[in-house]
Design a protein that fits this description.
Enolase-like, domain 1
């Protein structure tokens, strides 16, 4: 094995995912204290009726400190003629062990309070966001509570945060004109209705198998921690085409580095 590869592997070993022994109270307290500070400094909580609920970004930070990242398994359109509704499933992946350690399901509907005028993509996105929070809540509620916050993701709470959305203008119909006026008035031309805007195509996000392949490649010893972190933070935003490109790029970087070259992975 070349000295360059030995050096790269040694750097990877020194930058492993931070690990906590949750059976030790001192380590649990340290993580909870750090989490409370991070949430406060970055304003990652929402106050509902005097209680503070952590936004999904705060839950993701708690998970990242333990080496646990979310993967969106699927988003299903369960809408009908009168309702826009999506269901999402998210699993949690432990980078250290390489195993799935949790999961969460969630839905979002435009019939919810404050979401009447949400567009379809926003409903779909919120279903995914809620599922991420729910998945983390199922395994990390205790650490959020220890940090001094309510153990329910903010996105699950019903509150009037969206009531400021623009409401459609009320149309007041004019009173009918007297018959004499109608007869004598010149004929009015009908104004054609404006065509409805075309719906934006729904993005085909990366499949579960593509995400699993990306994570498998990211765990290769020659991939650095910054590269792994950058890719994992954006994995749920990849569409199928970009995921295919990312897999190809990772494979090439690994091959080049194993041959003693220094190609960038991301």
């Amino acid at each position: 094995m070349s000295e360059a590869i030995k050096t790269t592997k040694e750097q990877v070993r020194k930058t492993k995912v931070e690990s906590y022994d949750i059976s030790r109270s001192d380590e649990t307290l340290h993580l909870a204290t750090d989490l409370a500070k991070f949430i406060k400094e970055n304003k990652l909580s929402t106050s509902v009726q005097g209680k503070d609920y952590v936004n999904v970004e705060g839950w993701q930070y708690a998970g990242s400190r333990l080496g646990i990242v979310p993967i969106v398994d699927h988003v299903i359109n369960v809408s009908n003629d009168t309702e826009i509704k999506y269901q999402a499933k998210v699993t949690l992946f432990d980078i250290k062990s390489g195993h799935t350690v949790g999961a969460g399901f969630a839905i979002c509907s435009n019939k919810e309070q404050g979401k009447k005028f949400y567009q379809e993509f926003a409903i779909m996105s919120m279903a995914q966001t809620r599922a991420i929070g729910k998945a983390y809540r199922n395994i990390l509620a205790w650490i959020i509570r220890a940090a001094g916050y309510e153990p329910t993701p903010a996105e699950e709470m019903e509150y009037g945060g969206n009531t400021s959305a623009a409401q459609p203008a009320l149309t007041v119909s004019p009173a009918p004109a007297p018959v004499a006026d109608v007869v004598s008035a010149p004929a009015m031309k009908a104004v054609p209705a404006e065509p409805a805007p075309a719906e934006a195509p729904v993005t085909a996000y990366a499949t579960t198998s593509q995400k699993e392949e990306i994570i498998r490649l990211l765990n290769h010893p020659v991939i650095t921690r910054p590269e792994k972190t950058k890719m994992l933070l954006n994995i749920n935003r990849l569409d199928e085409e970009r995921a295919t490109q990312a897999i190809a790029k990772l494979k090439k970087a690994i091959e080049d580095r194993e041959n003693g070259q220094t190609a960038a992975a991301a």
